User: Fold Palmitoyltransferase pfa5 from Coniosporium tulheliwenetii.
Amino acid sequence: MSTPEAQRAINRGASVIIPCLLVGTVGVATYVVVVRLGVDYLLRPSSDLQLTAAYPVNPRRGTAIAIIVVYCILLALMTLPYLRTFQVIQTNPGYIRRGPHAQRDQPPAAQAPKSRPSSAPVPRPPSKNALPNPTPAAAAAATAPPPRPRPQSHLRRHRRPAPGLERFYAKDAFVCDMSGLPIFCPKCDNWKRDRTHHCSEVGRCVRRMDHFCPWIGGIVSETNLKFFLQFVVYAALYTLFMLVVLAVFVAEQVRIGLGRDAWLIGILVCSATFFFFAAGMSGSVIQMSLRNYTTVENLFKGNKTYFIAVYTGPQTPQAAMERPLYPTVTYPLRPTPGADIRQFAILQTKPGENPWDLGALQNWRELMGYSWLEWLLPIKYSPFCKHGARYEYPFGPVLDRMRREAGLSSR
Ligand SMILES: [Zn+2]
Assistant:
């Protein structure tokens, strides 16, 4: 078994085992904090404790109730987004529909190679409007390494493009390859919407895929990233609370001669471990969310460039005669009489630019919602799940600048 396939098998197995372990651990933690510490030690100390301890163990009703109430609130806050994430994974994980030639049953080794061999020719743009003598900007785009040869190989194989291109060229801008076609996934046999990534573990293209998470038993994507973030933040608070409370009372029990309670110490160690994991994950997701990166995009953000097809707007006869500053593609690829012709400029971002960065606050709102209640509770989907008519996801100032530089906008 190849290493990537072995890793995927491990991830799939872990996605079943880890949620069960989590539920079991939380059950034991609840017993320890509520029953063993809250009731048996603080609320109604048993006569055995009184006999064993070197000092009197008095009932502390207020402390017990406060600990139990805060524990239950944090447990509920952590559990709700966890269940919501789990429910979304089962019902609406954000998969892209497969095409008729999708590679459903083939093992990974038999699937199409990811990249073209180095001796293969560089694909030619299908647009008849592409410039024969490109400008420096276009030349730079043309000399850049061909990022995605899949659409062209797909076109050659099937002679005509897969259906569904109209969903892209009906918009004002979309991510494309250097020829102006949307990115194509040969495994799913379909076009990839902006920010879509093919997930090997589930064998599907996933909208705004973030990562495959064994802790929640599935894929984190546009539909559940918000709930996942709420879960890890509340999990950090929940484990921190237990860490502090248990550390205090373990120390107290040792001090008054009761010795070390293995139950309390076991959950204390688990709390410390999960706290550092959950806090680290919370910090990482929040940081990426404020910059509008998914985990996948964050991995390649350093030198990543995007080709973006940008609608040039209605063309006047005079403008159509002028040579544009950019390569273009015109849709439909095979126009029929009376078809609505839409021309797109093929523009390229600078290395490391994120065209979807709207600024930290707006990035946060697009993920978490526009009210405090949405930030705190797993009620609504993220606003960016409502894909607009003009864009799959809102573009930021980077696209405005590219439009200006290409002469497509004066703003
Ligand atoms: Zn795919």
